[in-house]
Amino acid sequence: MDLRAVIIDDEEDARKALSSLILQDHPYVRLLGMADGVPSGLELISKLAPNLLFLDVELRTTTGFELLEALGEKRPHVIFTTAHEGYAVKAIRFSALDFLLKPVDPAELHVAINKAMDAAEIRQTPQQFLSLLQNFGQERAVKKRLALPTLDGLVMADVSDILYCQGDGHYTTIGQLDRKPVVISRNLGQLEDLLPHDDFVRIHHSHLVAVKHIIKYVRGEGGEVVMADGANLAVSKRKKQDLMDRLARV
User: Fold this and answer.
1) Which domain holds residue 159?
2) Does the model's pTM come out above 0.70?
């Protein structure tokens, strides 16, 4: 399926750089037009009806989220672009189709566009965007649900049901109550940023666990924990005291 895209960014150089990459490397993406803010962006989208939107997070005195709210439920698929590695990026990682940090890396753009091609085949539900809008601007809020990006699409997960996250490079296995583990295309550090710190503790460079779902701690140099689904996860010597401190507060 062809992608019909627009770019909304308040920086002219950023618009030119991204459009050049798209035109040069992705001939199956039709770039319909570009805009520099919310009003012009809304007009462009209304007129051209794209199915893919490259959207900057910060647009002068407004944000890309305001544009999404104005569009309502009938929105194009969104790939955010931003120069800021801040909370906005953390909040949208499991809600937006993807995000790209400026300057845009051609390889990351290729991955993001492949996701857009897949998403265009099976239209994602508005829940993804509702989650995005609810997460933005609520840095201290407890997020109740996450949209987890898998190879097949998105899996909605209740944060309270997440047992552990086991990292392996760019991928993470999520263990959940009464459900099979799922592998998502996000690294463990991204999940640690997103999940509430009061509920989860890093016990190893590869393991992040929900404190309330720990059934048993087995002593050792670092030791290991047994989770509610029976999974045994190693605790590193360096992280052992962090775990002990958290368990003491339960």
Assistant:
1) 145-248
2) no
